[in-house]
Write a structure and sequence with these properties.
Helix content is 16%, strand content 47%. It has two helices and 21 strands.
């Protein structure tokens, strides 16, 4: 009777529980049972983000699928005119772990919720810049045929990796390198501020570029193997004077201008004096 009751109990458990079980009677009247739990092979990362996009392996959306026990690497990109202020994973603040827009999770064994908070970036100036540059890979080879997006302003690299993006305003901008098939090859963020020309990298992987008002800029940009963009050098390229056929490739300071213009003025004055003397003699 006991064996029959135990068997019926196991059978009922099989009907109501999401597990597989096998039972076998023992000489002592007990039951040996092996229970196999069903383990999912993937988990969902639910994205809650306003004015930002989160992608995994190039795929975006409100839910991202990650293989179980994988370490998914997410790209968090704010919309133009916004910046990311806080990132949480299942309520835990992970903002400091986001480097250059990328965040790598620990091995995933359950569903997760990623929340991204943003704020609008105030543009306090109307200054704009034409930004040119060269895109290369880590081996120094030019990267042709890719789109360079700086805050919604775009340009395409030629066969030598050169590009030009016009009318980029001062302020903070996402910078994205997009391949011919729409895949994201590299990402970073830059902030352009008024000052002496230069570039510095922050702890969060973004770059601050200081530039004189309305200066044209030339950047050396490298796409790293892990999808980041490194900016090695920034050069100030002053636009040509309207009506002049001689382009200017740098800004000339006051002392330098005196050194250049004074000898020229002396030469012109000497020529005019010589001509005046010649006229008086002929008279």
């Amino acid at each position: 009777m006991r064996k029959t009751a135990a068997f019926l109990l196991c059978f009922m458990l099989l009907l109501v529980c999401p597990v597989a079980a096998s039972a076998q009677g023992t000489p002592g009247g007990g039951i040996d049972a092996t229970i196999y739990a069903s383990v999912p092979d993937s988990h969902w990362i639910t994205v809650e983000a306003e004015h930002a996009q989160v992608t995994l392996d190039g795929q975006g959306g409100a839910q991202l699928k990650a293989a179980r026990l994988s370490e998914p690497r997410l790209l968090i990109r704010p919309e133009n005119g916004y910046r990311v202020t806080r990132v949480t994973l299942n309520g835990t603040d992970v903002t400091d772990a986001v480097i250059g827009g990328y965040y790598t999770l620990e091995p995933v064994y359950e569903d997760k919720t990623l929340t991204v908070s943003t704020e609008a970036v105030q543009q306090e100036t109307d200054d704009t810049h034409d930004i040119s540059g060269t895109i290369v890979d880590e081996s120094g080879n030019p990267v042709p045929g890719v789109t360079v997006d700086i805050g919604g302003h775009t340009g395409v690299t030629d066969e030598d990796g050169h590009f030009t993006v016009e009318d980029v305003p001062d302020g903070r901008h996402p910078v994205t390198i997009i391949g011919p098939d729409g895949e994201i090859l590299g990402y970073t963020e830059i902030e352009i501020v008024d000052g002496q020309i230069g570039v510095t990298e922050g702890e969060d992987g973004s770059f601050t570029i200081t530039s004189p008002t309305d200066a044209a800029l030339d950047l050396e940009m490298t796409i790293t193997s892990d999808g980041r963009i490194q900016i090695g050098k920034v050069t100030d390229v002053t636009p040509a004077v309207p009506g002049s056929d001689i382009p200017k490739t740098g800004r000339v300071g006051g002392a330098a201008a005196v050194c250049i213009l004074l000898p020229a003025a002396v030469c012109v004055l000497a020529v005019r004096l010589a001509r005046a003397k010649g006229k008086r003699r002929s008279a």
